[in-house]
Amino acid sequence: MTRIGFLINPIAGMGGAVGLKGTDDKVEDALLRGAEPQAKNRAKITLNFLKKSKSLIFFTPAGAMGEDALRETGIHDVQIVSHPANKTTALDTKIAAQNFIERDVELILFCGGDGTARDIFDVVGRDIPILGIPAGVKMYSAVFAIDPSTAAEIVLTQGVLSYRDSEVMDVDEEAYQAGELKTFLYGIARVPSETGKTQTSKQVFEESDEERAKGDIARFIREIMIPDVLYILGAGTTTGSIACELGVTKTLLGVDAVKNGKTIARDIDEKALWVLLNETHEAKIVLSPIGAQGFILGRGNQQISARIVRRLGIKNIIVVATPHKLRETPVLYVDSGDRILDAEFGNTVLVVSGYRMAQRKPIYQPQRG
Q: What is the DSSP secondary-structure string of 269-331?
């Protein structure tokens, strides 16, 4: 039997759809904005695959930090290691991690974001491999599977896997909330190694020709913008260049909406965006993959939810990226939270990479069970 330490951060990802840059210390604000818990549902996608295996035994905290999802999925080979309070904290994560060490688990499978990864790493270091089911707002560490179903694939083949060193990243929270991304290396964890199934750490490209390339992309996008069509601009510096070309200010790490060269909404959340779309005759989404991770959807732009994409249709998504970023990103990823929608993106996507220039890039599609 493979001994799995399993943990959920119940509040992970709640801030994404409501336009917050994270959930740490902002749970009450997220709830006031109508946020709903996401992590449990993300974890259950993984568990629904794992329940088919008879060779796994799970060690987990009671209640919302793991036990509930396991029981609801139909997994009964479960041992409780701790009893957190209803309002969980980072300390509860660290207590569970310490108990995982004492139970000699072979892998810690957790559902959360960068903060959860850091809390676990603080306790276990490199002694126990870790693997994240992505559920946070900002996931810049390289310890996460591409999506929940891929996390299950990795666990089910763990016995024949090797391990690699992967970065646990830290984010300057104050700078992030102010719209500036500052990351630094927090530690090096051990992660099950299977090529293309775990994300890379976030990279910020600084090549001298990057700004020129972004400018070329921006000029082309401005030329093809259709009058009276609403354009939803995702996070990032490339979409920021498009806003600059239009003469408006962009929320660097948020989602804005422009129409006829004017800003209609800044730093908009998912619910407000849904209302705006229902008042709009036609709209398009402009997205840029995150750093070297290559995610079109599912990392840092949860405001653009699966229902938003379905409302507009995949055909109305424009993907933009500089040539350098595309060289460093051989495969792109989609993790909208809706596996059927993710599959509808197909195996390739056309990416605008310059003035009247585009490249066709492959999209990773996990095994569908």
A: -HHHHHHHHHT-S-EEEEE---TTT-EEESSS-TTS-HHHHHHH-GGGEEEE--HHHHHT-SS
SS3 162: strand
Alpha-carbon separation of residue 290 from 35, 120, 236, 353 (angstroms): 24, 25, 7, 14
Q: Which of 152, 130, 139, 85 is nearest to 112 (CA)?
A: 139
CA-based R_g, the chain, Å? 20
CATH number for the domain running over 2-193: 3.40.50
What is the pTM (predicted TM-score) of this model?
Answer: 0.66
State pLDDT tens for residues 40-56: 999 999 999 999 898 99
Nearest to 296 by CA among 363, 202, 217: 363
Domain boundaries, the chain: 2-193, 210-362
66 is written with which tokens? Answer: 């793991």
Closest CA to 232 of 188, 191, 180, 269: 269
Tell me the residue ranges of DSSP E strands in 44-106: 56-61, 78-82
* Dihedral of alpha carbons 91, 171, 176, 269, sign: negative
Q: What is the mean pLDDT of the chain?
A: 86
C-alpha separations of 91 from 41, 51, 94 in Å: 23, 29, 5
| Tally of CB atoms within 10 A around 20 | 23
Q: 278-293 pLDDT, tens per residue?
A: 999 899 999 998 755 7
HSE-CB at 89 with a 13 A cutoff on CA atoms is 3
